[in-house]
């Protein structure tokens, strides 16, 4: 795969690239070994980033859209971890990373103390700033929005919390096969969509959110944004 990417970059005379690894590689015992082998065989250097860096990169995409309120909680749910960032006027104030990814939860590898820390952080924001709405990213929240009434406001995709709860409860009562058939979900989405919903519902309940803004963009868009910033003179 990495050789294929290298060939594509050569075809397009790529001036710069960025190869980042997140939660799975952070915890893999042979992570560094894999990175070294990829580099030796392709010349591509993969960088393992920590959760806070991941959150910072993802939250940068908030500047690409206008928000009605000053403060939002930005939540990005991945397979291995969930990144939470407080946004003030579109700019990240502080970020935290929690080992509460969808695949981790499905494998029963999530820990009670991690959920407690997640709840504490969300509660901290609510106590300090009052009721807050959420900007949600990741393939699962995108899918929840597509299954909802698809409200839009000022070119922003709005997922009503009541809609999220209704869809989640309907999905929970179905088997994976039934979810695939009824909601036309892909097999690799039909299982992880449940733990993702659990995370967003927990956060929205604590924050007393009315809605979640679903920009349909994520980590890869933030990476591209940073690449452009770092190479603007070259471009």
List keywords for this structure.
235 residues, alpha/beta, two-stranded parallel ribbon, globular
SSE diagram, text form:
Blueprint: H1 2-11, E1 19-21, H2 23-27, H3 31-42, E2 46-48, H4 51-59, E3 71-77, E4 82-88, E5 91-98, H5 102-106, H6 112-129, E6 133-137, H7 139-147, E7 151-153, E8 156-160, H8 161-172, H9 176-183, H10 187-190, H11 193-207, E9 211-213, H12 219-230
Parallel strand pairs: 1-2, 3-6, 6-9
Antiparallel strand pairs: 3-4, 4-5, 7-8, 8-9
Task: Provide a descriptive summary of the structure in words.
By secondary structure, the chain is an alpha/beta fold. Helices cover 51% and strands 19% of the residues. The chain contains 12 helices and 9 strands. The strands form 2 sheets. The chain has a 7-stranded mixed beta sheet with strand order 5-4-3-6-9-8-7. Strands 1-2 form a two-stranded parallel ribbon. Strand 3 and strand 4 form a beta hairpin. Helix 4 crosses helix 12, helix 6 (112-129) packs parallel to helix 11 and helix 7 packs across helix 11. The model has no long low-confidence stretch (mean pLDDT 90).
């Amino acid at each position: 795969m990495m050789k294929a990417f290298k060939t594509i970059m050569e075809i397009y005379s790529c001036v710069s690239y960025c190869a980042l690894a997140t939660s799975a590689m952070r915890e893999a015992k042979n992570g560094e070994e894999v990175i070294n082998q990829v580099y030796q065989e392709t010349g591509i250097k993969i960088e393992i980033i920590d959760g806070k860096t991941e959150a910072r990169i993802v939250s940068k995409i908030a500047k690409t859209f206008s928000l009605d309120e000053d403060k939002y909680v930005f939540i990005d749910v991945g397979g291995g971890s969930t990144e939470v960032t407080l946004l003030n006027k579109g700019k990240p104030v502080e970020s935290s990373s929690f080992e509460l990814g969808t695949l981790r939860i499905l494998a029963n590898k999530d820990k009670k103390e991690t959920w407690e820390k997640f709840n504490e952080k969300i509660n901290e924001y609510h106590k300090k700033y009052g009721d807050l709405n959420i900007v949600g990213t990741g393939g699962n929240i995108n899918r929840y929005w597509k299954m909802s009434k698809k409200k839009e406001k000022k070119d922003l995709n709005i997922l009503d919390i009541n809609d999220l709860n209704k869809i989640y409860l309907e999905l929970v009562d179905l088997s994976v096969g039934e979810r695939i058939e009824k909601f036309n979900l892909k097999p690799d989405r039909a299982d992880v969509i449940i733990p993702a919903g659990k995370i967003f519902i927990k956060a929205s309940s604590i924050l007393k959110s009315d809605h979640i803004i679903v920009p349909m963009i994520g980590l890869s868009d933030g990476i591209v944004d940073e690449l452009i910033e770092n190479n603007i003179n070259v471009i």
